[in-house]
């Protein structure tokens, strides 16, 4: 890639993020951003467990999958230690926090199971765990009234 091309790409990338802010996209909480990163990485891992003909060339090695599973586990542990944003400061917030903690603990354990399945190269089991994780996500969001983007 030539230098001018690189500059152009950089300018475009920066330009896009500036435009997003100029259009008043909601400022996200740190929890929101971390949840989104978790979502992205989980999707990447899920795809790497079912490589199609189209993605075969880019499919991850078991070592790369394990590195991603480790990253996911660290991310979810960080998330579990956070507190959901308060909504008014009343007893409802105390309940929200309790709901969050109650659901994040098993989520951390499930991500640890995912890591173990990947370490053992048990692909089918890992796929089942990913399904269970997505269910926990949906149910957790419903319990917390999270509006999906
Ligand atoms: C694999 C599991 C999970 C993933 C990948 C995930 C992903 C996400 C994503 C992408 C968002 C941003 C909103 C959206 O675009 O949908 C979000 C927000 C949120 N999630 Fe999760 N989530 C998971 C599990 C959970 C669980 C179990 C809970 C707890 C009950 C939870 C609580 C929340 C809360 C409170 C927010 C709002 C954060 C804020 O805006 O400050 N999530 N999550």
Quick synopsis:
By secondary structure, the protein is mainly α. The chain has helices at 3-22, 30-49, 62-80, 91-119, 123-144. Protoporphyrin IX containing FE is lined by residues 29, 31-32, 35-36, 38-39, 42, 84-85, 99-100, 103-104, 107, 133, 136-137, 140-141, 143-144, 146, 148-149.
CATH architecture group name: Up-down Bundle
Largest sheet: none
The CA-CA distance between the termini, in Å, is: 35 Å
> Mind telling me the C-alpha Rg?
19 Å
Query: Which ligands, by name, code or SMILES, are bound?
Result: protoporphyrin IX containing FE
* Shape category: elongated
- In total, the number of domains comes to 1
Low-confidence stretches: 5-23
Order of helices and strands: HHHHH
Strand content: under 5%
- Structural class per helix/strand content? mainly alpha
Instruction: Let me know the number of strands.
Output: 0
In which range does the helix fraction lie?
A: over 70%
**Could you tell me the mean pLDDT?**
84
Give a structural overview.
This protein has one domain: Four Helix Bundle (Hemerythrin (Met), subunit A), CATH 1.20.120. The longest helix has 29 residues. The chain has five helices and no strands. About 13% of the residues have low confidence. Helix 2 packs antiparallel against helix 3. It is mostly helical. The protein binds protoporphyrin IX containing FE. Protoporphyrin IX containing FE binds next to helix 2, helix 4 and helix 5.
